[in-house]
């Protein structure tokens, strides 16, 4: 079963570091499953998301990119 929240990121991305903190702050206290995927390991993801990272998907629906809001993630999980 896929995790509900996916963080699409890449190495060396300071916005990805901030997004990771936001995802953890929302998901971990409530036990919501999440995973981080480095888009540079998947040519399809790299072509699709390119410079938009970080991107957060909830149930496979994009809820944010670049500056990720914990509030947007919470709203999408409801």
Structure description:
This protein has 78 residues and is of the alpha+beta class. It has one domain. It has three helices and four strands; from the N terminus they run βαβαββα. The chain has a four-stranded mixed beta sheet, covered by helices on one side. It starts with a strand and ends with a helix. The mean pLDDT is 95.
What keyword list fits this structure?
78 residues; alpha+beta; 41% helix
Describe the SSE topology:
Blueprint: E1 5-9, H1 14-30, E2 34-38, H2 43-49, E3 55-58, E4 61-65, H3 70-77
Parallel strand pairs: 1-2
Antiparallel strand pairs: 1-3, 3-4
Widest sheet, order of strands: 2-1-3-4
Q: What amount of the residues lies in strands?
A: 15-25%
Poorly predicted segments: none
Q: Portion of residues in helices?
A: 40-55%
End-to-end gap: 19 Å
What count of domains describes the coordinates?
A: 1
So how many helices? 3
Provide mean pLDDT, rounded: 95
Cα radius of gyration in angstroms: 11 Å
Secondary-structure class: alpha+beta
Shape: globular
Short description:
By secondary structure, the chain is an alpha+beta fold. The protein has helices at 14-30, 43-49, 70-77; strands spanning 5-9, 34-38, 55-58, 61-65.
